[in-house]
Amino acid sequence: xxxxxxxxxxxxxxxxxxxxxxxxxxxxxxxxxxxxxxxxxxxxxxxxxxxxxxxxxxxxxxxxxxxxxxxxxxxxxxxxxxxxxxxxxxxxxxxxxxxxxxxxxxxxxxxxxxxxxxxxxxxxxxxxxxxxxxxxxxxxxxxxxxxxxxxxxxxxxxxxxxxxxxxxxxxxxxxxxxxxxxxxxxxxxxxxxxxxxxxxxxxxxxxxxxxxxxxxx
Length: 217
Prior knowledge:
Elements: H1 27-31, E1 40-43, E2 48-51, E3 56-59, E4 64-67, E5 69-70, E6 75-76, E7 79-80, E8 85-86, H2 94-98, H3 105-110, H4 118-121, H5 127-138, H6 144-150, H7 156-177, H8 181-188, H9 192-198, E9 202-206, E10 209-213
Antiparallel strand pairs: 1-4, 2-3, 5-6, 7-8, 9-10
């Protein structure tokens, strides 16, 4: 980047690093439908995520709601790769409005502050409100970084059982409430077995049951 840069050059790099986390002032965008739930994904406490400022993976210390990604590079859902632009530019979230790649201080200032959670976006009268709470209570996301440090091999049977029970829970609720894949990822985040795969686990399905193995250190 040119050290004298002070405007966006529409290179698309920031949008190619995934969708932004949503903040409290973005709630109205979801309520009014500018950002449908089906285009959002929940990142649960304990997951590993890419920090665009440090360019490193780090554990999430609190739940985040992010715009979903698409494609092999997990581009922001609203990024137009041909035009190198945002398809919801006029109603883009706070993090996108204040991001300046030549000066990251403003966006660094709001990281992990005043962020939205699922229960901020689901009415307490919605039957899925309690379902989300039940899922989080029954199948919390382990601290993935700590899990890797301690060695998941020694806890593989427990992790496998939890992953299978969570799939059963998800399948029941997805069918009951007729949730799309996008809506499922908003309400429950990524399945546990997907998180395990992302950090090196081998997962196969045998007789409708997941079998999970971990490579030796």
